[in-house]
């Protein structure tokens, strides 16, 4: 099983309150009353997420989660802390020991969302690390289910991107990375709530800020799964713009890796040609015209020319 969630607190009433949050969720709840007991469980069986209080007798939560990171690097680690101990939680995140933290008293819905995201992240990382090509595509299709408007998007992006790769005469190893990166470019959306992905109309600034985090989240997952650098580049940079006005890094021009510039062209064309919650897709002729308008601004002009050559007489 890869959906085990370990709750750690020295107070039984806290453990019971946390456990009740997951009665109707697709997770298997484990409990521990202290750090040593928790480490014993992590040594014995796979654990997707550990949620630990910080101020406990004996081993503190930060120390526990640091040891969990060494024992099971894929396990998502969540710290519960009081306001007075907030600097400790922030330092733990900066050191990479904690995936998320929540301040007591916690908000039930926020804890549940964090844990469910952690479980999905754990499952994706382990599948990516050990998966063959069919598994990678299956993972991409599963992530697409969060956003029904993008069904088939990863396959279409891969097909468009490979046409550009063929036009450039890229070697087979690079073509393989482009195919896999096209499938997985949106894998960071496991961290974006479905309510935001499927919201009709224009997103608020706050919601768009959440969406803009998905390339970074996806790249973190890719690094954790030891994916090739070219695939990680695609995941991280596919929303950068040729003019430097993209996200998440603001890279521009040739600073953006070639494989990411290729997938960006394919991604933008498919997005414009497909109905979304906030906009109806363009007909092919209009999408081609729009691609020309984006040439040299959002998109690499040479790659746009290669891509559009397939559509022009």
Structure description:
The protein has 313 residues and is an alpha/beta fold. It has helices spanning 12-20, 35-44, 61-71, 86-94, 108-130, 133-144, 153-168, 172-184, 194-197, 205-211, 214-224, 229-237, 258-273, 284-294, 301-308; strands at residues 4-8, 28-32, 49-53, 76-81, 100-103. A five-stranded parallel sheet has the order 2-1-3-4-5, sandwiched between helices. The longest helix has 23 residues, at 108-130. The protein is elongated, with a radius of gyration of 22 Å. The model has no long low-confidence stretch (mean pLDDT 89).
Keywords:
54% helix, 8% strand, 313 residues, single chain, 5 strands, alpha/beta, 15 helices
Topology overview:
Blueprint: E1 4-8, H1 12-20, E2 28-32, H2 35-44, E3 49-53, H3 61-71, E4 76-81, H4 86-94, E5 100-103, H5 108-130, H6 133-144, H7 153-168, H8 172-184, H9 194-197, H10 205-211, H11 214-224, H12 229-237, H13 258-273, H14 284-294, H15 301-308
Parallel strand pairs: 1-2, 1-3, 3-4, 4-5
């Amino acid at each position: 099983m890869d959906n085990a969630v370990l709750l750690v607190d020295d107070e039984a009433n806290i453990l019971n309150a946390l456990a009740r949050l997951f009665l109707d969720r697709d997770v298997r709840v484990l409990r521990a009353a202290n750090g040593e007991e928790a480490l014993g469980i992590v040594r014995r069986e796979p654990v997707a997420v550990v949620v630990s209080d910080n101020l406990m007798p004996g081993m503190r939560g930060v120390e526990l989660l640091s040891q969990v990171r060494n024992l099971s690097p894929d396990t998502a680690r969540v710290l519960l802390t009081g306001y007075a101990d907030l600097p400790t939680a922030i330092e733990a995140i900066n050191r990479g020991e904690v995936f998320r933290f929540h301040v007591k008293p916690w908000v039930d819905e926020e804890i549940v969302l964090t844990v469910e995201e952690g479980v999905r992240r754990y499952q994706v990382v382990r599948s990516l690390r050990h998966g063959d090509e069919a598994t990678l595509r299956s993972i991409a299709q599963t992530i697409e289910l969060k956003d029904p408007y993008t069904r088939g998007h990863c396959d279409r992006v891969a097909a468009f991107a490979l046409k550009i790769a063929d036009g450039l005469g890229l070697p087979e190893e690079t073509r393989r990375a482009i195919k896999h990166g096209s499938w997985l470019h949106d894998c960071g959306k496991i961290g974006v709530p479905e309510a935001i992905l499927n919201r009709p109309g224009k997103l608020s600034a706050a919601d768009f800020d959440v969406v803009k985090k998905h390339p970074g989240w996806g790249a973190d997952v890719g690094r954790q799964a030891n994916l090739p650098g070219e695939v990680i580049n695609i995941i991280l940079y596919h929303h950068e713009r040729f003019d430097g006005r993209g996200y998440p890094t603001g890279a521009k021009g040739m600073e953006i890796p070639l494989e990411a510039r290729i997938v960006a062209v394919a991604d933008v064309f498919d997005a414009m040609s497909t109905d979304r919650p906030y906009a109806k897709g363009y007909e092919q002729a209009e999408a081609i015209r729009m691609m020309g308008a984006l040439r040299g601004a959002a998109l690499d002009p040479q790659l746009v020319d290669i891509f559009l050559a397939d559509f022009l007489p």
